[in-house]
Amino acid sequence: MIDWLLEPLQHPFNQRALLAALLIGCTNGYASAFVVLKKSALKVGSLSHALLPGIAVAIMLVGLHDWSAFLGALIAALLIGLGSLAVSRGSRLDQESALAILYTAAFSGGIILLRRMNVTQEMEEWLFGNIMGLRDSDLWTNYWISLGALGILTALHRPLLMTLFDAEVAATLGVPVRALNYLLLAVLIVVLISSLQAVGCMLAVGLLVTPAATVYLLTDSTGKLFWGGSLLGGLASAFAVLAGWWLNIEQGPAIVLVLGAVFLAAFLFGPKYGMLARARKGRRPS
Amino acid sequence: MDSSSHPCCAHHLHHHELRVEDLRVSYRGVPALDGVSFATSCGSCVALVGPNGAGKSTLLKAVAGLLPTDKGRIFWRGTRVSRWSREIAYLPQREEVDWKFPITVRRVVAMGRYPQAGWWRPFSKTDDAAILRALEAMDLLDLQDRQISELSGGQQQRVFLARALAQEAHALLLDEPFSGLDRTSKAALAVLLRTLASEGRLVMASHHDLETVRGIFDEVLLLKRRAVAFGPVGEVFTPENLEAAFGPVPQGGKEVA
Q1: A168 and B119: CB-CB below 8 Å?
Q2: Which residues contact B199 (CB under 8 A, 6 or more apart)?
Q3: pLDDT of B4 over the 80 cut
Q4: Same domain for B73 and B107?
Q5: Chain segment A47-60, per-residue pLDDT in tens
Q6: Any domain includes A286
Q7: For residue A160, what is the enclosing H or E element?
Q8: Which residue in the set A173, A222, A225 is minimally distant from B114, CB to CB?
Q9: In a domain, B20, yes or no
Q10: C-alpha to C-alpha distance for B163 and B146, rounded to whole angstroms
Q11: Which of B101, B123, B149 would you mutate first to test chain A, the one with the most A CBs within 10 A?
């Protein structure tokens, strides 16, 4: 039994995948606190879909290199994000509608392009992730992204929280609200891209929302929301990778499924904000 | 910069003047305020009164530096206000804040120290002392570790005031501070605002309860996109001026709620 549990860890590429899952899970979990506090899960979900056409166009133009997919995804997310802003400012449409139009159109274009480029295998990976296909260089890329993202988010914790709590008051206290909003979005996009390898662009938003959303049901402390989200993201991802080996299921969906299960448990059994606790107190959810 | 322990300016009224000259602010090309001029100073409690859409919130936000102005100028202590100032605190309507945000009372009050503490410097002893003083003045010491979601309306308003005190602001701009409070909290808040003004701060609040204007405020600015009248409550808060701002009212100058 023990042998069977530990057997997967013998192989170096398995160790690499496990390490990557921890790294990506932690970073996404930490960043997910910002997504939850900003209430921008929908926006992040849309942007994650915008990554696919970026990858497709980048590969079409310059071929598949270490950085081409990454840069293509980044540029696509920025274009779609800023484009939706431009559409909403230049018309009477709200930004979410504009975003929905742009990202679905771009996503469709990406699918059609990729189908014609004879990269069916890779397409599957970009959509749903393939953490087993990770190379050492990918691990290093993830490492630097995590370090940079966590560094920026931690250093700017105070003004970022003030902006998220009340942007107008923050502005009257001298916080550069607009610049911070753009920076936060940029960091979130980069974190999103780093998770592509693990969960793909269809599932990326799950990893960038669920961890802190789960902790949000368990604690009132802002600090715990960040570090709890990080811990949960890392552990759940690592566990899902192991479970994927033991039960022979795909690791990308496994990560998001494990997170979903933990969320459900918190939703039902959370001591203060869980369904059962609320039912016992006879209070309606506020 | 003046960061003395007591931000009192009672004895220098003429230095601490807020002057607005011919102000115009527009949203998408439609003016929300036009040709508004008035001047007041520290120690005064000013009511902004006018019908819905008269530009009360707009004026407060413009003075706080949150809105670009099309025309006109705002001076605080003789210096032009174009963006934010540490000496001017803005207190939003309570409805505009997400009270489910996971944060404690103390942390919200501590935000007032941001101009001094900056992006990442830990709070100094001076900062901690200012936060403590603010909590004490607003009677929030016992509540400082509470989640803001657990506060009553009156307590929420006091948290905002405490943040402004921690900021050591001289001018407090409040958007409808009394709305949604019960009677006891309203009375307590009125006393607090009077105290803050008598200690030498400028308190300026939009207010829609015409009955209580006389009891709380020293001066009143009647707004209807333009300044209908400005001056001491006793002189300006007259049926004629109210009619000019609100239109003809059937009985006794009461606003139809």
Answers
A1: no
A2: B6, B8, B10
A3: no
A4: no
A5: 999 999 998 899 88
A6: no
A7: helix A157-165
A8: A173
A9: yes
A10: 15
A11: B101
